Amino acid sequence: QVQLVESGGDLVQPGGSLKLSCAASGFTFRAYHMSWYRQAPGKERELVATITAGTGGTTYADSVKGRFSISKDYTKSTVYLQMNSLKTEDTAMYYCTVPRLSAWGRGTQVTVSS
Question: Residue 104 has what pLDDT?
Answer without folding.
Answer: 96
